[in-house]
Structures are given as structure tokens and as C-alpha cells.
Amino acid sequence: MYLPNQFDPKDPQVAIDIMQAHPFASLISTDDSGLPFVTHLPVHWETQPGQGAAHGVILGHCARGNPHWKYLQQRPQAVVTFMGPHAYMSPKVYPDLVRVPTWNYVAVHCVVEASVLDGHDAKDALLKQLIADHEPAYADQWRGLPEDYTTKMLGAIVAFSLKIISMQCKVKVNQHRPEAHARMLEIYDAGGPDDQALGAWMRKMGLTGTQQ
User: DSSP of 182-205, one letter per residue?
Assistant: First the structure.
């Protein structure tokens, strides 16, 4: 992605925080005609033993009827994107009128190498990871379901491991416009969930609104 230096946090942990907070990702590779093919799916990020924070593995699954897993088998390199909070920002935040609107956002892009995991145990382990991430209390219900039912459900999906090869993280909250930070924070703090989340990101980046 286009990543001007001022929007690059340069800390891999920032990207990990975004991926874990916004795990509904877009998996992008190519179909048999060479066109981009996109699947939107919940994923689980985990570190690899002995690897630094910049590397890890993304685990996910799709329906067996979705051809994406076949594309990953044939062409393992893919991209996974994570979209964090985003919101419009009016030019009224500036002290002068010769300005234009913008859209601020937080995002991560990962280049990955895919491995398809089609065994029963691997798929069951993946589902238990996702359950632990999103509804731990459901684990007992999953374990208590009839075996023929869970076997059928597991047979209807294909899991995959996506090893992160490289990663880009973009936190665009107009870091380079300190004259607008105080007013931006006022607007974000009074706005909806995405606005408030962007205000929190401004503060994480040290943009407290006191710079003039």
C-alpha cells in the first residue's frame, strides 16, 4: 500500500495490536483467470516460536464450496488486509480555510505464504482458537455436539495457515498537521465509535492536541 513515512508507526507491535483488535480480515489472491479474488473472514494471529514480533502466522478457514482454498493451493502467495477504525475529517479543523477534507484510518497489509490444512484435527484446533477469541463460553457447547454433526461441519470447511512474509502498517491520523490536532480530538471524542477509536489512536501516537 501507499505508505508515506509520517504514517508508518515502525513498530511491529502496533500492527499486531490492530490485527488482534480487528480480526475480520480480507484474504486476497488471484483466481484462475488472474483476477483478484477476495474472501472476507475472521482470522486468528499467533506468533511463531523463536520469531520476532514482525512475523507470525494467520489462521483462517473458508467454506469448502469457496474456490479460494484451491487458489491458495495453486498459488500460495497472497495478501491479507485488516481495516481498523476510519472516519471522514472536515477541513474545519484547520485555523485557515485553504484546506481540503481527508479520511483518516488505521490498516495493516500482510504478504503471506499459504498452506492448506485439511485434516480433521487441524480444523478442530483452528475452530477452538476462534471460539476462544470471540466466545469462550461456546467451547463447552461445541465439545458437547454430536460427533456426526461436528464431523459434518468440519468437512464443510477448509482451514489454512498463512505465514507472514512481510507486513505494512498505516496509522493515518494527520500526524503531520499539528495545528489541527486539538480540534480533531474534540471532534473525534464527540463522534461515533470509529471517531472515538481514532482519537484513541491519536493519543497512542502522542498527538495530544497540545502542539501548536
Answer: HHHHHHHHTS-HHHHHHHHHHHHT
